[in-house]
């Protein structure tokens, strides 16, 4: 059960926290789907004496992007060819993806879905007469040959309010609760003192007690999700915390791995999903299950019109695909707003009433039609109640009846992630198999170097949002990728049995660094009459506001319809450098503020890599997600390539480079 919200200051921070040191073989950082996959799988392969520790910032039952639940699993291969899955991901992400990672995931993802069902997740099935069994009625399981209810080629419907609880329970049972620590925020990964480019541990602090935890390990997996609140959200005031992706995702995966030298890839990519306005409710079920369409303020279904088809020709070959890439669908919507034809509506009324009209045309009487309607109404509301309760509350609060009136949808502020319709993340090794390209050069150019999903830092693995250049994993794929890491980390420990990690800093030095905001607060709080206004420090809230203002106005946020330029990007980088200087003087009076301070450190680092990558890539690879006014086109001739960047922990310098994108699966005639 989740703990109740605590008033500000109820958990005051102290100057000398208790230091707790841990030694383990395998360290799993995170508690979302990827971490749960690793925790479940690793015990199958680990010898009895292998020490494994999972550390989560939250509580696993409601941790990660699936915390609030889902109404569908978006990646289930089933009867489809894995090659076609690769083609779908490649097309949606505008051609630049790691096909080896995507194909490899396609081989494993269905097993995770079958496990979810066996653990108790209700999955909708098709009855023999072709009707839908919505998870509450008996049906053959997927493993027994049951046919899932598809809403698209890759998606299947579930009753998923408790999805994450079910997956977390299985992970905890497999790993053992004695090997799991919750409410511990890991904020830094640590390199080995003696062995070059090798992970050796991590450090973090409790969000419930004044304790700093220092870990030594032989191998680690970092899977802490993507990045949210790095751009100013559309919601303001009390609603600022309302976002589409989970607000606790602070870019920690990317920042902590980059800081120890792991190469990043495609950090210019972002995701600005079109969602129901203000509530950020999901649109997938409405598009796929209810077959709804979007209309502009004039009532025109613009996405199907001749003007849209002409516009898509500007982004060939991707604009010619059978399924328009997500960013280009956003681009068409942004154009409607810019041309003054907003608002844009999800035509829920048209979609729902078309089902009723079809029923009447099929000879159903009014009593039967009414029964069909009640079922449709229930499914429409349950879609939100399963995964976005706030949207259901917004509909109710605004007297919206979806069968009578459409609801506004709008592109959100940008997010950074690698598991949804986005592909930023960390450059990792693919499987060590012959079909994976064998490329000469440093690891930042290679496609494989021994251990599947290992970063360019020895012993450091990642999964889910952490693995770059391979989106469309979603919840099931993130879990499967965690399972891959679990097995590989056991292999790594076996191959490096003699390695004894040693840290460069003492536990006391690490604790002083982690609690520096608290030390600063306690030293200077008495200098003014109000703790939030002080010439000697900044508070986390103010730093967050400055970050959002800089990125929104100069980095292509909602304020400019996602438009930026080389000039604006360099101004943004200057502002972020200054912000990092000031962030070094953040102060925290309680444990919640200490958590916010470290989230700010991570967000600033993360979004700086994002801006740096967009500036390096001289094109607009993802129209609708971002635009460069000075390079407004998709330039396949020069830029159909990865942009990779590496931070050198010794010199404190960044290097950006272009890396070859190799097709493995046969390309379509148009791509």
TrEMBL record:
GO aspect biological process, one term: anaerobic respiration
Keywords of the record: Flavoprotein, Oxidoreductase
One annotated Gene Ontology cellular component of this protein: plasma membrane
Protein name (database record): Dissimilatory adenylylsulfate reductase alpha subunit
Pfam family, one: FAD_binding_2
Organism superkingdom: Bacteria
Entry-linked Gene3D superfamilies: FAD/NAD(P)-binding domain, Succinate dehydrogenase/fumarate reductase flavoprotein, catalytic domain
InterPro entries: AprA, FAD-dep_OxRdtase_2_FAD-bd, FAD/NAD-bd_sf, Fum_R/Succ_DH_flav-like_C_sf, SdhA/FrdA/AprA, Succ_DH/fumarate_Rdtase_cat_sf
Organism: Candidatus Electrothrix aarhusensis
Enzyme Commission numbers on file: 1.8.99.2
Sequence ranges assigned to domain FAD-dependent oxidoreductase 2 FAD-binding in this UniProt record: 25-269
Cofactor dependency: FAD
GO molecular function list: adenylyl-sulfate reductase activity; electron transfer activity; flavin adenine dinucleotide binding; succinate dehydrogenase activity
């Amino acid at each position: 059960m989740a703990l109740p919200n605590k008033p500000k200051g109820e958990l005051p921070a102290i100057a000398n926290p208790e230091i707790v040191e841990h030694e383990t073989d395998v360290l799993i950082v995170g508690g979302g789907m990827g971490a749960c996959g690793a925790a479940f799988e690793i015990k199958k392969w680990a010898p009895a004496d292998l020490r494994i520790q999972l550390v989560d910032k939250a509580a696993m039952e409601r941790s990660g992007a699936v915390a609030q639940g889902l109404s569908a699993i978006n990646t289930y291969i089933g009867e489809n060819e894995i090659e076609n899955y690769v083609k779908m991901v490649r097309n949606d992400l505008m051609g630049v993806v790691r096909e080896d990672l995507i194909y490899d995931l396609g081989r494993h993802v269905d097993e995770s879905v079958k496990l979810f069902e066996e653990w108790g997740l209700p999955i909708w099935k098709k009855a023999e007469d072709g009707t839908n069994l919505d998870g509450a009625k008996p049906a053959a399981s997927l493993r027994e040959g049951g046919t899932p209810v598809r809403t698209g080629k890759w998606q299947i419907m579930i009753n998923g309010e408790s999805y994450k609880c079910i997956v977390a329970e299985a992970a905890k049972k497999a790993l053992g609760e004695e090997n799991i620590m919750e409410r511990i925020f890991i904020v830094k990964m640590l390199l080995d003192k003696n062995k070059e480019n090798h992970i050796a541990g991590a450090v973090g602090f409790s969000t419930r007690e004044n304790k700093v935890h220092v870990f030594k390990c032989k191998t680690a997996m970092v899977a802490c999700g993507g990045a949210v609140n790095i751009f100013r959200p559309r919601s303001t005031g009390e609603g600022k915390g309302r976002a589409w992706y989970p607000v606790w995702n602070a870019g920690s995966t990317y920042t902590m791995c980059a800081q120890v030298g792991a190469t990043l890839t495609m950090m210019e990519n972002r995701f600005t999903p079109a969602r129901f306005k203000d509530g950020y409710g999901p649109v997938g079920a409405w598009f796929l299950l209810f077959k709804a369409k979007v209309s502009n303020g004039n009532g025109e279904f613009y996405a199907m019109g001749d003007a849209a088809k002409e516009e898509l020709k500007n982004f060939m070959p991707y604009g010619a695909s059978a399924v328009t890439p997500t960013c280009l669908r956003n681009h068409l919507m942004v154009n409607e707003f810019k041309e003054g034809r907003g608002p844009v509506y999800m035509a829920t009324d048209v979609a729902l009433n078309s089902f009723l009209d079809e029923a009447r045309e099929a000879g159903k009487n009014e009593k039967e039609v009414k029964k069909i309607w009640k079922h449709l109404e229930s499914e429409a509301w349950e879609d939100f109640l399963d995964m976005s309760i706030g949207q259901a509350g917004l509909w109710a609060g605004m007297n919206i009846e979806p069968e009578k009136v459409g609801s506004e949808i709008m592109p959100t502020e940008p997010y950074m992630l690698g598991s949804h319709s986005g592909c930023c993340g960390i450059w990792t090794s693919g499987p060590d198999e012959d079909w994976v390209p064998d490329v000469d050069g440093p690891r930042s150019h290679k496609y494989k170097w021994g251990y599947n999903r290992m970063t360019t830092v020895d012993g450091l693995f990642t999964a889910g949002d952490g693995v770059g250049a391979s989106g469309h994993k979603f919840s099931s794929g993130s879990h499967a990728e965690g399972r891959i890491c679990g097995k590989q980390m056991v292999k790594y420990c076996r191959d490096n049995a003699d390695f004894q990690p040693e840290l460069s800093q003492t536990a006391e030095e690490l604790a002083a660094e982690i609690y520096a905001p608290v030390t600063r607060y306690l030293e200077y709080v008495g200098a003014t009459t109000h703790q939030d206004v002080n010439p000697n420090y900044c508070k986390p809230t103010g730093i967050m506001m400055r970050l959002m203002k800089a990125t929104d106005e100069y980095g292509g946020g909602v304020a400019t319809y996602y438009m930026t330029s080389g000039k604006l990007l360099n101004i943004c980088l200057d502002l972020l450098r200054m912000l990092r200087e000031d962030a070094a003087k953040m102060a925290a009076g309680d444990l919640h503020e200490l958590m916010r301070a470290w989230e700010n450190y991570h967000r600033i680092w993360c979004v700086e890599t994002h801006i740096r990558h967009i500036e390096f890539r001289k094109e607009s690879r993802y129209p609708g997600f971002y635009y460069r006014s000075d390079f407004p086109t998709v330039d396949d001739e020069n830029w159909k390539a990865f942009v990779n960047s590496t931070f050198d922990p010794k010199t404190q310098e960044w290097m950006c480079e272009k890396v070859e994108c190799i097709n493995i699966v046969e390309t379509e005639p148009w791509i």
